[in-house]
Amino acid sequence: MTKHLMIGNMTGNSMDAIDLVLTEFDDDIMRDVCTYTKPYSKDMQNTIESLRANVFNKTPSEIEALPEFRSIHDNYIRQIAECINEMCEKYNIDKNNIDAIGFHGKTLDHNPPSKARTDGSLPYTLQIGSGQMLADLTGINVVYDFRSDPLMAGFDGAPLVPPHNAHISATEGNGCYYNGGNTSNFALIIDGSAIIGADAGPFNEYTDNYIRDYTDESFDRDGMFGKKGTLNKALLQKLFDFGRKYYETPLPKSGDPAYYYKGQIFQYINKKKFKFEDIVHTFEYFAAYVAVQALSLIPNDIKIPNKMVLFGGGWKNPIVKETFEKLLKGEGYVLPEHQEQFTKLLNRFSGCPKVRNSDFGDYMEARLFADLARYKLDNKAWEIPEIVKSGKSVICGRIAKPNKNRKEYDDRVNRAAKGWQMYNNVKNKITTIEY
Hints:
Blueprint: E1 3-10, E2 17-26, E3 29-39, H1 42-55, H2 60-64, H3 69-90, E4 100-103, E5 106-111, H4 113-119, E6 124-128, H5 131-138, E7 142-144, H6 148-152, H7 162-172, E8 175-180, E9 183-190, E10 193-202, H8 205-214, H9 233-242, H10 244-247, H11 262-272, H12 276-295, E11 307-311, H13 318-328, H14 339-347, E12 354-357, H15 364-377, H16 385-390, E13 398-400
Parallel strand pairs: 1-4, 4-7, 8-11, 11-12
Antiparallel strand pairs: 1-2, 2-3, 5-6, 7-13, 8-9, 9-10
Helix pairs in contact: 3-5, 9-12, 12-13
């Protein structure tokens, strides 16, 4: 594999900020040249959240017909392009030296095969984000729409991070790599390979949204609210009950905020009139709780490494991290129904698990898409564990090259959005893929 200089971008489900990282790759040895972050305004967060509700379960043509869609989408892309241009200017980066931007887009709906099989629906995934528009506004090649290819090949399309964790293990070694973002996900990395990877459940999802609804803050910075509260055991039980169908689904699986019933949970909380700080504390406890519960679903024939490598901003919350560590020591409160399950999990470790923060830190998700983009440029398959085990090979993403004369964009919605089985709007032909 050749050397590459790539920009990785991630906005995430929480829409807290635009994160950028410029990374040099020499095979799987990587070095971050610089990083750049620009927080989103509350207005933009609310706008995207409103769009998410409006596009749920809609086809691309129905989405494009929404009067507000194009203006929201185009503003989203312009803000990312502005950040990329600002980063290049700030650090005197010659754009001609950059091979590509790895751009994930914004996920607004997700119905992967692991979920579709349980309710008889057809799988799809919805990300918005025109790679062509971003290429035109930055003057840099863009690789994007990474989830469509694995999903159309019969796999979940998320999480995409396990192979990147495997690449980083060249420096950080074996371990369970755990991401704390809006949703948590993990990957077991043994001898440089990803053995299994899956989403766990809501991490920042409940806390961030609740904080935004009732304070002027964007998140519970340093656990300032959660530290003043205590665990509400009845609420903890209710949180698990609301999402039980998802949490108990076997691995591998991918999640989505829609599976966690945030709206119904907030309605329940408002009726009960729980103390604000107790709610925040319990949300944070639950983030760590489902992260541990997901580990208990790992098949018994897979060895779980003793080292937990944490990345993602959510782990900066002391309530979440401390709860995670306590639960892995057999301390902390566990729901009665899970006591045996958690005990069996702890017995699978050879000693107490060691928890540490990744040396690659907060920009792991942004760097992931830089990594994915270089694999696409080299026409190399992205080795997601479930795909590797199936014997298949999937190359993820598509490439957009700058075209200043372009007047219209037909890639605002990704290829594997709802209805792709009947009509592929990229190839403009009927497909024969069946599930």
